[in-house]
């Protein structure tokens, strides 16, 4: 994996790239060597040829971007979370927050954070005295989410505070759940990669090749039921068989594509 900068980097961007290289070497699941290389005036395609490596992390003034071959760049952006938080700011409702019966001060565990869209809305909803723990097992999505939540700047009231409050941990959710005491969180949320992809979603398409594609196990749901005080919620394609397989008897169809399974405690 190559780490480089945008053209004509400032000193802080060079230091950020060097720090990023050091951080990546400590992550779990990084198999190929990490090399910090000068950008000069090279295109990304030229860097790939020069160093015989298809994976590039680009550090710019605004953000970190991940490039793999001809796929779209992967980077952190609040995306639909920004729209949902705006609605909450305006006193409107959010289907997931309503299903979760979220209250200020709640503790929420997002078992499959991805790029953090749902974790961000949860964090806004639980407010300053609440807590959201976001788990991401895969190193590149984890890194992009962690860095993005720390540095992204939003003009939506309360959004920056919500991002900074989220605790991001690189760990498989099954291992994390086993380590938790009973009733440790009010809500445990699971949003795995859908068995039936929604190809219209560009953000999901960019992360799909990096995400953990393993289906949620029955043991994971059993542990989630032990750890949750109020509810375990899973998001899936509305026609998915996973709800039945994992024992979600209450299924709420949110859109033409999405549904939430709920087990209330």
Automatic annotation (TrEMBL):
Q: Which domain of life is it from?
A: Bacteria
What name has this protein been given in UniProt?
Class I SAM-dependent methyltransferase
The species this protein was found in: Paenibacillus baimaensis
Q: Name one Pfam family in it.
A: SAM_MT
Q: Which keywords are on file for this protein?
A: Methyltransferase, Transferase
Q: Which InterPro entries match?
A: 16SrRNA_methylTrfase_J, SAM-dependent_MTases_sf
Q: What sections of the sequence does the record tag as coiled-coil?
A: none
GO biological processes: methylation
GO molecular function per UniProt: methyltransferase activity
Instruction: Give TM regions.
Output: none
